[in-house]
Amino acid sequence: MSSFQDAVIRNFEIVGEASRNVGEYYPVFAAAHRDVDFSSAYEMRNVLAHGYRQIHSLIATLDD
Q1: Which of 3, 8, 29, 41 could bridge 19 with an S-S bond, Cβ 3.0-4.6 Å?
Q2: Which distant-in-sequence residues (6+ apart) come within 8 Å of 1 by Cβ?
Q3: Which InterPro entries does the UniProt record give (predicted)?
């Protein structure tokens, strides 16, 4: 995996982790943006953070 891919995955992890806290720390913002599925961003973060082999396999497949 390239350092560019590592950086992209890390940024998705950061955004996903932050999205978990939107409703708690910024309830007005969350209420104004009900169409944004913040929980999906957090779930994607979990896949990236904890499913490394799955993601690595997908990237290897896409690179071929």
Answers
A1: 41
A2: 56, 59
A3: HepT-like
Question: How far is 18 from 39, CA to CA, in rounded Å?
Answer: 10
Mean predicted confidence (pLDDT) in 5-22 = 89
Give the whole-angstrom CA distance, residue 9 versus residue 11: 5
Q: Of all helices (H) and strands (E), which one includes residue 64?
A: none
State the DSSP code for 21. Answer: T
Q: Apex CA 42: angle with CA 37 and CA 43, to 5°?
A: 95
Per-residue tokens: 56: 């690595």
Distance CA 58, CA 26 (A): 34
Position with higher pLDDT, 5 vs 27 = 27
> What confidence score (pLDDT) does residue 53 get?
59
